[in-house]
C-alpha cells in the first residue's frame, strides 16, 4: 500500500509499505478514507521529539471503513463507516474504566521507553514515535486498529466523512480543553492558537456556555474563521503591545476566567524572550518555545484555570511562582476521545458544530509531502491539509 513515511528531520516521502494484518483477535483493519495533518506531527518532523525511525508511517487523525475484523470483535463489523480516536484504549484497565483512555495501561508495548521520563507510561497512539507504542499511522491506505470494539465508532447517517474526520482528534482535544475550564454562564475564555485544536477549543467553549471567547493568533485568515464561526473576539498578538494588558482592559481589569494553550512546544511570540527561546531550542538546550503558556498564566485572572492542550517537553522558565501566588489551577492531558464521541455526534447532528470548516486543502495521499509543507509553513491560508488514500 501507499503511505506517507518519516525518513528523518524534514524528510518525508510517499512510499510503498506492507499492508497491515490482524495481530490479535480483537484487531480491526480500517481502509482509510480521510486522514489529516496535526500540529503535534510537526514536533517530530522538526526533530524536537525523539523516537521516530526511518520508514515509520505517521498520522493519527482519521476515519474510514472496516474491511476486516478479528475473531473476537463483536460490535464492529465489516462495512461499518467509523471514526477512530487517536489514542488507543483497551476498555478494561483502571484508566479506561475511569474514561482516561489516553493513559491506558495496556496499549503501549513500549512503555519502558517512557517510564524514566514520565514515571508511568501513557497509552499507545497511531504513528507517533516508538515511545508512544510504535504503531503504524493513518497516512496510509489501511491501518490496524487494536481493540476494535473500543476504538471504532460507527458514524451515524447524516454525518459526512469530512465532519467525522475531526472527531478523531481535533474536536475531542478542543472539547476536553474547554471542559477543563469549568465554564459557567458569563465566563470569559481566552485561547492561544487558532489552528484546528484552538478553533475547536474556542467553538466548544461557546457550546459549553462561555459568554466571551478571545482567540489569539497572528494569521488573519484563522482569526477571521473564529469570528465568523463562533463570534470570537480576536487578538493579533503582533499588533498589540501586550496580550495580557489587552485582555485585562477588555475584562474590566480582572482577566479571563480561563485560558487555553492550544499551541505547544514550537510556539511563536514577540520580543527578546522569543529570540532567547528560539536560540536555545535551535541549540537543543531546551525543547520548548513556551511563550503562549507563560502568557496564559500571566493573563488568567486570580483563582482561574489554565487548560494546557499544547504538547510540551521540558519547559524552561516555567513561572511556578505566578501559579502559586495567583491561585491558578492548571489542567492538562492528552485527549480522552472515546469519552466524548457520543456528545460530538450529537453536536454535529444538531447543527451546533460542523468541524469540516477546518479543511482548507483536500488532496490525494500522493500529494501529502506538499500538504505538510503548506501546513507547517502556514502557506496558502492552510489550517488543515486532508489526504484521501
TrEMBL record:
<dbReference type="InterPro" id="IPR013149">
    <property type="entry name" value="ADH-like_C"/>
</dbReference>
<feature type="domain" description="Alcohol dehydrogenase-like C-terminal">
    <location>
        <begin position="196"/>
        <end position="264"/>
    </location>
</feature>
<dbReference type="InterPro" id="IPR036291">
    <property type="entry name" value="NAD(P)-bd_dom_sf"/>
</dbReference>
<dbReference type="GO" id="GO:0016491">
    <property type="term" value="F:oxidoreductase activity"/>
</dbReference>
<dbReference type="InterPro" id="IPR013154">
    <property type="entry name" value="ADH-like_N"/>
</dbReference>
<keyword id="KW-0862">Zinc</keyword>
<comment type="similarity">
    <text>Belongs to the zinc-containing alcohol dehydrogenase family.</text>
</comment>
<dbReference type="Pfam" id="PF08240">
    <property type="entry name" value="ADH_N"/>
</dbReference>
<protein>
    <submittedName>
        <fullName>Zinc-dependent alcohol dehydrogenase</fullName>
        <ecNumber>1.1.1.-</ecNumber>
    </submittedName>
</protein>
<keyword id="KW-0560">Oxidoreductase</keyword>
<dbReference type="InterPro" id="IPR002328">
    <property type="entry name" value="ADH_Zn_CS"/>
</dbReference>
<dbReference type="InterPro" id="IPR011032">
    <property type="entry name" value="GroES-like_sf"/>
</dbReference>
<keyword id="KW-0479">Metal-binding</keyword>
<dbReference type="Pfam" id="PF00107">
    <property type="entry name" value="ADH_zinc_N"/>
</dbReference>
<feature type="domain" description="Alcohol dehydrogenase-like N-terminal">
    <location>
        <begin position="25"/>
        <end position="157"/>
    </location>
</feature>
